[in-house]
Design goal:
Length: 334
């Protein structure tokens, strides 16, 4: 076809995709190649809601909420309550009282009081409060500086260096320089960088996805460059001079590719919360998986954490791609 005809069919195709409830996502491979993932959100919504009704029955709902309250996992318990409200499920009088008690300030302080402080200082933990503390410490640059200093010391002494944590800390610190990467990561995705670092430190990244990220990170900001910048910066000027020095060393084109991952993770956090995003990461092996889970989070909202708890990696199978035959046919026509 001539260019004009080709453009016409492209417009028709785009209109058809939009009207069908399909949404297209660009996905970067480990080697930086780009592909397109088209998700049928309408069909995915139907599948997710149907699976939820089948798997989260009233008996299971009551049992699981009780278990989660006993374990002080109040965030997941609250997510199950959201599912119950959506599906018309009822808690027994005993469980309803237990849930209401768990929402009091005293109960919440008992469960999570010291966790945020631990996350802030060490960058580790397993709860929503641990995550919040770790992310806050990175926003205040303490966490990133702590990790860069620790890994730089290991580098200098010949000890094992965690380049993954080092580079993520460098990228996170560079993002605080005042001038965010024009082609890469901006302020809304800043917390996603900290969340990935937290997930890596606490063993909640799959090996395959960690490998994908590691290969990309090395192209964005080499570890040696971070260590050199750290050594060259006077101690008293680290909070101000080091972020600027690291920002200059970022490969903008490579950051743009990696930024799509942080954007997807940030979108999950906006649709749900940081704890849900972290638990979803445990089931991600490819950027396409993350794009699918972003759709699940958009559909589920407050119910998503319960779905993640109930289905695990099976949640990925409930997010449906658009028909391959239609895409192939369109390609042949155009």
């Amino acid at each position: 076809l001539r260019p004009a005809a080709r453009a016409f069919f492209a417009c028709i195709t785009a209109a058809g995709v939009a009207s069908a409830g399909w949404h297209s996502y660009l996905v970067y491979s480990r080697m930086g190649a780009v592909s397109e993932l088209v998700i049928d959100e309408a069909r995915s919504r139907t599948e997710l809601l149907a699976a939820s009704k089948a798997a989260i029955t009233e008996d299971y709902y009551n049992r699981r909420v009780g278990e989660l309250i006993d374990d002080c996992d109040l965030a997941t318990a609250d997510s199950y309550v959201a599912v119950g409200e959506a599906q018309g499920l009822t808690l027994s009088a005993h469980q309803q009282q237990a849930y209401e008690n768990s929402t009091t300030l005293g109960a919440q302080a008992y469960c999570v009081g010291a966790q945020a402080g631990t996350g802030f200082i060490t960058g580790e933990g397993a709860s929503a409060s641990h995550i919040g503390g770790a992310v806050l410490s990175d926003f205040l640059i303490y966490g990133d500086l702590r990790d860069i200093a620790r890994q730089s010391y290991n580098f200098a002494t010949g000890a094992e260096v965690d380049e993954f944590i080092l580079i993520l800390s460098g990228i996170g610190l560079a993002a605080t320089a005042g001038t965010y990467f024009t082609a890469g990561i901006a302020a809304p995705a800043r917390s996603a960088v900290s969340l990935v670092k937290f997930a890596k430190r606490t063993g909640q990244l799959t090996g395959k996805f960690a490998g994908h990220l590691a290969a990309s990170l090395k192209r964005v900001l080499p570890a040696e460059r971070i260590v050199s910048a750290y050594k060259a910066t006077p101690f008293t000027e680290l909070p101000t001079a080091l972020p600027k020095a690291l920002a200059k060393g970022v490969d903008q084109a490579e950051m743009a590719k990696l930024g799509s991952i942080f954007d997807d993770l940030s979108a999950i956090g906006r649709s749900t919360d940081q704890l849900t995003a972290l638990r979803m990461l445990k089931h991600v092996e490819t950027p396409a998986d993350l794009a699918k889970l972003k759709v699940a989070a958009k559909i589920g909202g407050r119910q998503t954490l319960a779905w993640t708890d109930r289905f695990g990696a099976g949640l990925l199978k409930l997010v449906k791609p658009a028909a391959k035959l239609s895409a192939r046919t369109i390609g042949e026509i155009v």
